[in-house]
Amino acid sequence: MLSPVDQSVFFAYDKSVMYPVPNKWGKKGATIVELKKVRKAMFKDALTTAYCRVAPKVLADKYQVR
User: How would residue 17 be classed by pLDDT, with cut points 50, 70 and 90?
Assistant: First the structure.
């Protein structure tokens, strides 16, 4: 689950690589990633961003870049 701002950042790169799930799920942050198209670094960034959004603060702090 990505925030709307995070979605816009990742989707701006290439809408055929990452895009919101249709319907209200996508508006709430659910995102489709085309694994055959996405670069490893971009996928790692998106996954870390999504994780830090929902993880307990003590765990999220280990992965957030400051």
Answer: very high
